[in-house]
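User: Before I run my own analysis I want an independent prediction to cross-check against. Here's the chain; please return only the structure tokens and, at the end, one sentence I can use as a sanity check.
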Amino acid sequence: MVENGKAAAGQQDIAGLDEAEARDRLRLLASQIAAANLAYFQNDAPIMSDADFDALKRENAAIEARFPHLKRQDSPSEQIGAQLGEGFSKITHSERMLSLANAFDAADVADFVAGIRRYLGLASDAPLAFTAEPKIDGLSLSLRYENGQLISAATRGDGETGENVTANARTIADIPQQLSDAPTILEVRGEVYMSHEDFAALNARQAALGAKLFANPRNAAAGSLRQLDAAITRARPLRFYAYAWGALSAPLAATQSGAIARLGEMGFSINPLTRVCRDLDAMLAHYAQIEAQRATLGYDIDGVVYKLDDLGLQARLGLRATTPRWAIAHKFPAELAWTRLEAIDIQVGRTGALSPVARLTPVTVGGVVVSNATLHNEDYIAGRDARGGEIRGGKDIRIGDWVQVYRAGDVIPKIADVDLSKRPDDARPFVFPSHCPECGSEALREEGDAVRRCTGGLICPAQAVEKLKHFVSRAAFDIEGLGAKQVETFYTDGWIKEPADIFDLKSKYESGLQQLKNREGWGEKSAANLFDAIDERRRIGLGRVIFALGIRHVGEVAANDLARHFGSWAQFIDCLDRASHEPAAHASDARARKPLLAQSPAWAEITGIDGIGEAVALALTTTLSQGAERASVDRLVAHLDIQAPVARASADSPVAGKTVVFTGTLEKMTRAEAKARAEALGAKVAGSVSVKTDLLIAGPGAGSKASKAAELGVETIDEDGWLALINGLSGGGDG
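Assistant: Structure tokens:
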């Protein structure tokens, strides 16, 4: 293990990253995480602490969330474990061995529980039980039994394929060789570990032999299990706790707790600290109890794992790419540190948001040197939350204060507390700027918005550059050779001031006195390649164009929803124009325009698109009805051949291309599940009934939508009818 702090060398706050820096950082993180995985899973010689590794993973996830178009094909967020080493034969897992998502505080756990309730459509007071068990710091192992006989044992590996360590696993006393009353096929999964006492004795023997000492019990357990000579493994005091299963020929029980108890009855060691918790308070209380016992357990743990107890509900929730939705690891807290706040800087983002950043005297927190921390917004600095309630006991944050900084798994450090006893006498409350520091335009805070925003728009250099960077980003126009750094340079030199200028580069700078090929860092071939790449993007999908405009609230998902609904730029912009002009909505501010817009049938069409709410509709109509913005967009569109979205379903789907609406209460699946199934079959899901609606699925409590469907002659079926339709297509129900 490296010295504390060195493992995450180079880690930084992402608040100030531009796109080029983010791409470079993701490349470095992928390399660092891959090296750490290799050292941890394959070489059993970690090069960083778990806290450092978690921090790198969180940083990678945060950068991907901020720049989703930069996500790498080899993204660490899509990988489990590491590639397999040489020396062992390989076993392909019948079912993937996944990792767990992490929670770092009570709020994360509350979000986890609330998210499950939302997904399943459960009320906040509906019974929902979870198991809570210690998260053992060891090596994951999968044991396959057939007709009660141990057939094979495999490490997790990369989640799909593991190393065949069957001979070694047979030497572990906690692993039964034969089972009674077991399903014909049973894969038992658990953790191989070494107790503190056995670890100390092993290292004492290693020292007496002059052999290499192990860094920690996890390292020793992994190295012992992965010995090519099973006799060496036999001499090592390994233990095994069972906590899960893979392939089964018959269910073990109806609940997680019941299944684990069944494994205990078969002869497996199961953790005695596993409890069934009936609510969030019980989960957090058991976490606190386990944390209090951590030092006396006799083996290493690094948190508590919560799993939804009902296996039927687990099946409904399903899996993400690398983690299950129904489980989470609540990690123990990271370190805290005190340091001085030297300055508060205001950064202006692409949407004009004024974001305060604390500049700190550098301090090491959880093995990482921290010099910046997010301050969120003006309320946070003043010691208030979004609803005006106190945070930090109402203590505000001032330049010169001593502040407590924490990471707790978060990539961007935050301020937990202020030491008022050390506040300088001349410290004054921070006055949040009312004008943009970049262009001097007024910075306004709309009702209900926690953020103050610059009103400068195109005249604000911070917004103009960021909008251009967004325009060429991966999920937008993605022009090869024209990245964030090139955009910034061209903007500074006056070559590009708006998106349309990109498509004039060739005509302006291919010949004449100023030529791209003559600029530093460019040549004839690279210039020609860029011009070709730009020309290739003149033909582009509608969803990319809408997303590329960088309109507030319009992300990639919303842009594609709009594209699927309208089908062409002409229909999209015509609807927006009608929504803006039909009610003569020319009020000076958005709040005054909104009730006027609501009178428009076109506005109703936009807000009737499933997933497109009033915030998106208002942002679209406000932005594209402003003279300067609209003229810029029109100049861009004149250069483009905008393509309709490609249909996502096969022609044999009877709902492909049709518009469906769900109303009333769905009793057998949530609205999110129903929408996903409909879209997977090529249907458009709308939020309201109109003449364009082809099918209404009406559950109990259907009201005005059902009446309107009857009035318009729209075909209406109940939820059972819908399930019969989609099950007939997909070959199975929803369980």
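Sanity check: The chain has 26 helices and 24 strands.
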